[in-house]
Every structure is written in C-alpha cells, then in structure tokens.
Amino acid sequence: MLAEASSQGDVAFNAVLSRAVSAARAHHSQLSDGQLSLGYDALPDHFAVLDEQFAARDIAPGEVVALECTTAVPGALILLYLLSRGFSLVLLPPRDATSQSPVPGFCRWRLTVRSGVLSGAADIALDRPETLLEIAEVADHRPAFAAQAYAAGHLFLRTSGSIGTPKLAVYTHERLLGNALHCIGRIRVTAQDRIAIPVPLAHMFGLGAGLLPGIAAGASVRMIEGANLLRYLEHERAYRPTISFLTPALCAMLVRQRSAPEHYRHVVVAGDALRREIFEATELRCRRVLNLYGSTEMGVISVADADSSEGPRSTTVGTPLPGVELRLDGVEDGVEAPDGAGVVACRHPYGFEGYVDGDGGAWTGEPALIDGWYRTRDLGRLHPGGFLEVLGREDHSVNRDGRLVVLAEVERAMERLPGVERAVTVLGADQLRGRAIVAYCALRADGHGLDASRVREACVGVLPPYAIPDQVVITSALPLLANGKVDRKALAAEASNRGRAP
Question: CA 177: distance to chain centroid?
C-alpha cells in the first residue's frame, strides 16, 4: 500500500501508482528531467520521507495548500505525493524573476518546489525534502467557502486567458484521474514508451494529458523545464522520446531542423491551431501529429486517434473521447456565423465541478454548468464522422456589417501570404466601424523586404472587405505565455494604445 487514502479518488490514484511501481520493475520506467531520475518503484520510500516532513510541520489533508510546481522531478514528486495523500491543492506555476501567481487566501500553506534544472543547484536530493521544498504559511490566510466545502481530495486550477473576474476551476481527484485515464487508449500510451513533456505541469495539457496518463500506463516520462528549441533538441538526442507533447510554437521551430529522428511514434499538439504546412512538416519530422483540444475546465475533450487516418486530420482535433458529448450552440442574435459554425458546448463525465472565485469564495458569476453542459466559448464546426474543427474563441471575434469575423480565420488567411511566418490579430481602439482589427505579423526570411502597407494590400486577395485588418504591425517576435500560447492580452493592450485606425 502506498498510503491509506482519504477518498475514492485517492484510492484510485494509489492503485495507479502501484501499477506504475510494477511497471518500473518490469520496464525500468522512471521520471527524469535531465538532472535527476526517479524510478516509480522508489515512490513509496520517498512518500514515507515526505510523510515525516509534513507531520513535523503539522500539515495534513483538511487544509488547502498552494503548490508552485516545477516541470521537473522534484515538482512531479511533490505533486504525486499530495494527490496520493488526498490533499486539496491549488496548482500554480513556479515564480520567476518577472511574475508570480497570487496565492488564494483560503490556502493555509504555500509549497515552493526547487528543481535545480535551470538554476544549476547541486544540493537538491530527493531523499532530503528540505533541499527541494520550501514550506511557508500564507500570511493573509483566511477561511473561505472553498476551504470548508473542498477541504480534501480536490484540485484547483486557475483559468487562463479569460477576461473578467479571476476564478478557479475545481476538480475532484477522482475526476482528474478519470480524465487522464480517458486519454491513454486514444493516444496509445504503453509501458514501453518514453514520453517527453516540455510544457508546464501546472497546466492541464502537461498534467492531465501528459504526466498522469504516462504514469498510469507505466511509461517513462522526461520533463523539460523552460523548454526552448536548443534545450528540447538536447533532451531529444539524449532521451529519444517516442511520444512528445508540443506547442505549435515549438513545432514551428522544430521543423526548421534538417533531422528526422526515427524514434518518434507520434507527437501530441495543443494550443493555438497548427497551420497546415507546419502540421505536414511536423509529420515528416516526427512521423505523426495528434491534434488535441481541451480546456482548464473540461480537461481533454477530443484528440486524434493515433491508429486512425480518418477525417481531415490537419484541420480537426479528432473526435470526442468516449462518453464526451458535443453540440454547437448559436451565436449572438442578429450576427451571421461562418458556414456551419457555432459555439462548442461540452458535457464531460470527468470535467470540473464548477468555479470558486479567486479568493475561494462561492462563485457568483454566470453558472459554469447548465444541465451538465459547459459552454466553452470556442467557435467550431462538426465534420462528418464527428470530427471537430475549432475556429477560434467566440470572444476573439468582432461583428462587422452583421457578419461575425473570427480573428483566427483572419490569421490563417494572412499566414498564406508570401513572406508572412505568423499572424496574430487582436481588437484595438474604437473607430467608426467599431473595434479596429490590428494584425501583428512576424515575417519569414524571404519576407524581409515587406512592410505593413504591402502586407495589408495583399490581404485584399485573401479576405473579404469586412475582414481586412485596419492596421498591420510588423514585429520581430511575438510575446508568449508560459504554456506556449501567444500572449494576446499583451498585444491587445499595446494595440489599444495605437489610437484610431486609418
């Protein structure tokens, strides 16, 4: 027994970890990060040491903790320990020199994990918790709704990219694990696989699609903290992954490499839509691409089947996982949506329970779930066979002349222009027609002679008049979030200061 579990979800977690221990003995499966390695069969001993550390501080399930989780072996170890012991936790990315995530006041303890991968620290030892884990009481701790209703066996994930009141999505441990186990059959993870995770564990893509399914299948997992192209290539050469979880930005960088490693079975890609030419080039390099669609609230919703070639694979995200239901709701009255498009709504057997506000209070905004259905606010189409195409965010669009202009479709059209590597559109200042469309463009090497006016003129040939950007800005680099997505809020803030468009 790994632990005496405090809930049904934790019983299931410990059963999964026990199977991982058995897989480690048969296949030498382990967690690694390029600096530290940890066999699954060593988890019980490390958990026993952590039991002593937590008992000495009088920390036990029943009070919510905040975990700043690194994408490295120490972060995964502490995360798995907390889940196995039934703690309720708020999962946060690690602090860096420029930003940190606020800790909700309903958390009693703040746990900060060191990794040593980026800092080069040599004093970290997995059997000495004091070298990898800093424990501090939250100074403004105060009991709240969440602390009482979700005292044990829950996970809180901060929603990303939304506008308005900050909120936390609430999962039971049982639903979190069920969501992860749901992925194994579609992604075809086995105990013989070597999985690379260069995306943060503090986000659902790295945790629910990558780490937990990998452990549940008994596969080895290599975490790559602070992944960039050079760091990823270094791990790729040393580790030879068979499955990797990538962002579109990392795919775009990888396909510029001449190498075509033979060790890949497939890569899983989530985030912003992958352009067709990048999809095809990634398949040439990594054998096969599985587009995945999910959210903080629903976890993994749909993903391409690793063993199937059905459907328009480059433009869709596969079909919903078994038991997941999808429908398309109407857009705003009086607005014409793109052909066959609607707002994607989802009912998921292993989705979240609902929201609490950023301080742990009861959620007072619009209901998160209505009859079990969650409105994702993503625009999409359903193709024959149930294949889902995601067009972009409902709130990442603008009404022009009674037509709904989906900014993601403007981006895809502009990226077909000669010389344009990447286009990102945001809404700028108000003008006579409404909010301006501002397009930020990064150019290819063969597009160095282009300027903003020439790019905008070229849009006439690929976009209807009502969808042509009001302004084009040429940029050498686009700002990125920790999860690899473009930081559209930063661009929107910059665009709003540009005044009225010409």
Answer: 16
Angle between helices 43-56 and 8-27 (to 10 degrees): 140
Whole-number Cα distances in Å, 67 to 81, 147, 168, 422: 11, 15, 14, 35
pLDDT tens-digit series, residues 421-461: 889 999 887 766 667 899 999 998 777 778 999 999 999 98
Task: Give me 23's structure tokens.
Answer: 């897989």
Tell me the per-residue pLDDT of 317-352, one tens digit each, with 9 for 90 and over: 999 999 999 999 987 655 566 778 899 999 999 999
Phi, psi (5° rounding) for residue 431?
A: -145, -170
Instruction: Tell me the residue ranges of DSSP E strands in 4-131.
Output: 30-32, 37-39, 65-68, 89-92, 109-113
Q: Are 471 and 404 within 8 A, CB to CB?
A: no
Report the distance separating Cα 222 and Cα 236, nearest Å. Answer: 10
CA atoms within 13 A on the CB side of 376: 28
- Give the tens place of pLDDT for each residue, 282-311: 999 999 999 999 999 999 999 999 999 888
Please report the pLDDT score of residue 501 as a whole number: 45
Q: Coil, strand, or helix at residue 279?
A: helix
Beta bridge partners of 267: 244, 289
Class of domain 8-388: alpha beta
Counting residues of the chain whose pLDDT is more than 90, the rounded percentage is: 57
d(CA 216, CA 150): 25
Strand partners, 282: none
Q: What span, in angstroms and rounded, lies between the C-alpha atoms of 158 and 150?
A: 16
What is the C-alpha separation between 208 and 106, in angstroms, rounded? 24
Query: Roughly what angle, to the nearest 10 degrees, separates helices 73-84 and 43-56?
Result: 70
What is the mean predicted confidence (pLDDT) over 270-275? 85
Residues of the chain with CATH 3.30.300.30: 396-496
Predicted TM-score of the model (pTM): 0.85
Tell me if residue 204 falls in helix, strand or coil: helix
Q: Are 160 and 80 in contact (CB under 8 A)?
A: no
Does domain 396-496 fall under CATH 3.30.300.30? My reply is: yes
How high is the pLDDT of residue 391? 87
Range(s) of the chain covered by CATH 3.40.50.12780? 8-388
- Cα–Cα distance measured from residue 212 to residue 16, given in angstroms and rounded to the nearest whole number: 9
In the structure encoding, which two tokens stand for residue 232, read together? 């990823």
- Compute the half-sphere exposure of residue 7: CA atoms within 13 Å on the CB side of its CA: 22
SS (H, E, C) 315-355: CCCCEECCCCEEEEECCCCCCECCCCCEEEEEECCCCCCEE
Model pLDDT for residues 69-87, shown as the tens digit of each residue: 999 999 999 999 999 999 9
